[in-house]
Amino acid sequence: MAVTTRAVATRRVLKRPLRPYGVAPTAILLLGAVYCLLPVSWVLVAATKSKAELFSTSTFAPGTGLMANLADLAAYRGGVFWLWMLNTLVYAGGGALLSTAVSAVSGYTLAKYRFRGRNLIFNVLIGGILVPSVVLAIPQYVLFSSIGLAGSYWSVLLPQILHPYSIYLARVYAGAAIPDSLLEAGRIDGAGHWLLLRRVALPLMLPGMVTIFLFQFVAIWNNFLLPFIMLGDDHTFPLTVGLYTLLAAGANQPALYNLIITGALVSLIPLIALFLTMQRYWRTDLSSGAVKS
Amino acid sequence: MRAHRPSGARGAGAAPYLFLAPAVVLFTLFTAVPIVYTAYLSLRRTKVSGLGLGRGARREVFAGLDNYSAALGDGELWAGWLRVLGYGAIVLTVMLGLALLFALLLDSAHVRLARFSRIALFLPYAVPGVVATLLWGFLYLPSVTPLRDLGVDVVLLGPGTVTFSMANIAIWGGTGFNMLVLYTALRAVPRTYYEAARIDGASERHIALRIKIPILMPAIILTTVFSVIATIQVFTEPTALRPLTNTISSTWSPLMKVYRDAFVNGDLYSAAATSIVIAAISLVLSFGFLRVVRDRAFQEG
């Protein structure tokens, strides 16, 4: 068989130049890894430094103030930091959940139904990718103000539900993961559109929906501009805006710097945990259908 | 076997429209209406009569293109564009270059610890821009920087260096995501392509340059367009770095000026005009880039 001879030949060829460039590629990648880990490892060390140690000891020398810093952080303005954590979780969790639901249903419909205006709707929704968020932020604020919702949770949650790229991903994934024959069989058995969506389409799309959820969760978690514009009361702030206001206040009160650094460390823990535990879902291409384990 | 036509036009009825209703409603409320409203605001201004006191002294009137001519003649805004141009040139070339290099190296199967490197390189994606700026900002401070331990004396937040320091934050935060996009695209290529090339005597470098990069072109274009749009709108890094240095003005980037006009000075109208200008420039740049790339592709093809 041609395939076998080729495979044998390939193996022979592959054996010879196993590492043709020596350790250089590995070294370059490790250098990149060190660069990426540098600030994160610094904040891990810096959070242990006391007020006196922060600006005096060597950059990567551990300090003695971790517990005091955490206690200060927890006590800051009656524990407002934990409220920021909780708010961020509400914005990112709620927003990503709604966003995933809307994207999945839209993607499935655009992939599996033929109807008048399908391409128009798809192109208009996807065109949203190219709209810079700056043209949206000001009018969104003014419009929310006019109905008395500026500054509320809704003003941050609602504008972040629609995510054009997620709809695109969901459409690609639905096309690859849902066999038409299965929908056809369901239809012959008399299942309605709603039942097919709930019992056939969405369960098959679940792995792709996890990926969409994760990307949207991170996007909302990391967003600064929208909550910065919308929110005025620090009890509604997410972490990004809260830490920024701490930093801005720290310009006049350097005593806050330890709080800021400890807060930055604590704020990173949930996302890095999510990131490390969900490794196999972090993919930017969903066209291959099922997730490989 | 009969080809399946997924739910033919007949019988689908209103279902697809109902299923798309949430997306269309959200698009209308939070994308279409705001765009139209921004365009409307950009053509208006406040007219003050008398001393500007009392009810009815301030009225909103039609201003024509006054706000646009003001935005185009605004030296502060132009200075912002120049700063962002320099910053963007560094960020785009270094970030996308590194992303491509790392993706190719990870895909080449000649590296050890590839899994560790890939996870470490993607990790900054999980760090919000504000926190990344905060971490690097502290590392730039003369009393904290590790360069002090090494005996190097550089002012990292001075007038001459602040652009590079800020570009470093964006590069640190953005390389991993772009690398993942390119790496995912590379993994989808059938391995047999490379095996065939190897049998024909192609070196790894040839395979990377002659096979992988051409295959990656659509993904490279996509990441470039998205990076251009994001870079033009740079806001988080300079805003979050400001409390740590006085080298960054409140109008360092065009978007910071939009924010100041709208929310500090309360002039929504000129802010709306400026944001339309920013949007227009980013659209022209991304379409222009696509055009150039497509023309090049046709010439070579």
Automatic annotation (TrEMBL), chain A:
Pfam family, one: BPD_transp_1
Superkingdom of the source species: Bacteria
Stored PROSITE patterns: ABC_TM1 (PS50928)
Location, primary (coarse class): membrane
Domain annotation ABC transmembrane type-1: ranges: 85-278
Subcellular location: Cell membrane
The entry's keywords: Cell membrane, Membrane, Transmembrane, Transmembrane helix, Transport
Annotated TM spans: 21-45, 81-108, 120-142, 200-221, 255-276
GO CC term, one of those recorded: plasma membrane
UniProt entry tagged with the keyword Transmembrane helix: yes
Keyword Nuclease among record annotations: no
Protein name (Swiss-Prot/TrEMBL): Sugar ABC transporter permease
Organism: Planotetraspora phitsanulokensis
Lineage: Bacteria, Bacillati, Actinomycetota, Actinomycetes, Streptosporangiales
Automatic annotation (TrEMBL), chain B:
Chief subcellular location: membrane
One GO process term, biological-process aspect: transmembrane transport
InterPro entries: MetI-like, MetI-like_sf, UgpAE/MalFG_permease
CDD domains documented for this protein: TM_PBP2 (cd06261)
Subcellular location: Cell membrane
Residues in ABC transmembrane type-1 domain copies: 81-289
GO terms under cellular component: plasma membrane
Keyword NAD: no
Domain of life of the source: Bacteria
Residues spanning the membrane: 12-37, 84-107, 119-141, 161-183, 215-235, 268-290
Family statement drawn from the similarity comment of this UniProt entry: Belongs to the binding-protein-dependent transport system permease family.
Protein name: ABC transporter permease
Originating organism: Planotetraspora phitsanulokensis
